[in-house]
Amino acid sequence: MKIINEISTASNRINYKLFTTETDNIIQYGMIISTTLFGAEESDCVKDITTDKELAERMLYTFADNTVLPSTMREIIEEYINEEQYAHC
User: CA-CA-CA-CA torsion for 45, 46, 48, 54, nearest 10 degrees?
Assistant: First the structure.
């Protein structure tokens, strides 16, 4: 895993990290969101979201702009990907 971009919001209490993994010469993008907003640290990580770097970066900035939390990350990734697919039909 290699972190390629990171954004902190809420006075550095929410962190968004975009990372890559590579398998069989295919680069996949994933995301980690962590927060200490509610006391203890909460974190979630989703690997292999997309092979599209531009999509992954748009998602990272959108999530940071909208204060997506680790607890809702997986559901919102699924919705985001579905919306992107339908937008190009």
Answer: -90
The pTM of this model reads: 0.89
Give the mean pLDDT of 20-29: 95
* Buried b or exposed e, range 32-69, using 16+ CB within 10 angstroms: bbbbeeeeeeeebeeeebbeeeeebeebbeebbeeebb
Per-position DSSP letters for 25-69, written without gaps between them: TEEEEEEEEEE-TTSS-EEEEEEEEES-HHHHHHHHHHHHHTT--
